[in-house]
């Protein structure tokens, strides 16, 4: 308890006026989901609208995992979650386990940014038929989106990355921190890039896992990057005799299933993977390709894709339903879809147009379906002011460690290369067998701790990432080898 009280007073700096300012966050001992140990929790109030007259305020939920030794640095690490729509406090358990070395000398600060978690989450009400919604694909029809929009207690328009960065600056100030380090995952890398661009003097270093550069309209390259990930999976399979023989018909099977949607959705019969009860369902092309694409995020799910396609070719959609339910469980429970829409409809979708979508999706199994689904959803959802300078190339003088998964279907290494050009100096490490996210794998936590401790990637030996093993492509329900 004495240690916790000391952390309360010494969160970021020595006991000066700045430390007294740190107590404005109201930190107190608490427990957070997924973590047995006692940590610190508090909140910071921020204005919902950053321009115009004062109005509604948002209470941001903050958790701090104190450093575990007395050799404590005064520059904590802010963890920025993905989505958009995920609250960072849900990372407490995984981060505490993976970042033990990092935490020896630095506090970890987790903020549920506006519209997520405990900070006024813009969450949708649970659907009556979750599996049916997944099989139907898309974000939701216009009536459903309008109903969810009207049900919210907040105006979704001012919920975007610019506002998040301004909020996080308020949290940094409330905690009395002069400079901080950033770790961002997926969409969190976009927040980190903008924070470093807007306030470079406040940022000591950044770690970006699954880089989503500001200049990249998020839905545009989904189809092309997923195709590249699928090609890589099949190439690995073709190099192994048993796998090549088992899945020799994959391309034909996939084309056969996709052809069934030429006249629209198809009626299917399957067993609900959650309770085993037989049920009819309506499967759309968007639902089918979105399920395959989502599976590619996680190597152990990607390994099942050839089996799922082969089953679908035999009119057995049970494996697809199981994969959809498994892959969607975390997003349905932890993502605030209204926040996802608010960000994408303000920052990304306005940069799309049909010719560009057609050009970037040509020849892919996903096609235009997902980009068009987001465009249609944004016709209903409120949007904020267009972002300032997202498409401009700006180099921030902050050291960056950029991590890319070699099997990532949404932020592949090419996006990491783009992000590296926006920081100086920058070190880009590709983890060959990782999917979307590699920070918690093998030796990567140690690399992160070393980078933040030194504040530079100079001398960083990342050869160990090559020893992180691949997940075998499944040859049957019992697994397989590759």
Task: Characterize the structure shown.
The chain is an alpha/beta fold. The chain has two domains: 2-122 and 159-214 and 389-467, 3-Layer(aba) Sandwich (Rossmann fold), CATH 3.40.50; 124-155 and 216-321 and 350-386, no CATH class. The chain is built from 20 helices and eleven strands. The chain has helices spanning 2-9, 17-22, 92-98, 100-103, 130-136, 142-151, 161-174, 187-198, 222-238, 241-246, 250-259, 285-295, 299-302, 305-313, 318-334, 337-347, 354-361, 369-378, 413-420, 444-454, and strands spanning 28-30, 39-47, 57-65, 77-80, 108-112, 180-185, 203-209, 266-271, 278-283, 400-405, 426-431. The strands form two sheets. It has a nine-stranded mixed β-sheet, sandwiched between helices. Strands 8-9 form a two-stranded antiparallel ribbon. Helix 7 packs across helix 8, helix 12 (285-295) packs across helix 15 and helix 14 (305-313) crosses helix 15. The protein is globular and about 60 Å long. The protein starts with a helix and ends in a 28-residue tail after the last helix.
Give the helix/strand layout.
Elements: H1 2-9, H2 17-22, E1 28-30, E2 39-47, E3 57-65, E4 77-80, H3 92-98, H4 100-103, E5 108-112, H5 130-136, H6 142-151, H7 161-174, E6 180-185, H8 187-198, E7 203-209, H9 222-238, H10 241-246, H11 250-259, E8 266-271, E9 278-283, H12 285-295, H13 299-302, H14 305-313, H15 318-334, H16 337-347, H17 354-361, H18 369-378, E10 400-405, H19 413-420, E11 426-431, H20 444-454
Parallel strand pairs: 4-5, 4-6, 6-7, 7-10, 10-11
Antiparallel strand pairs: 1-2, 2-3, 3-5, 8-9
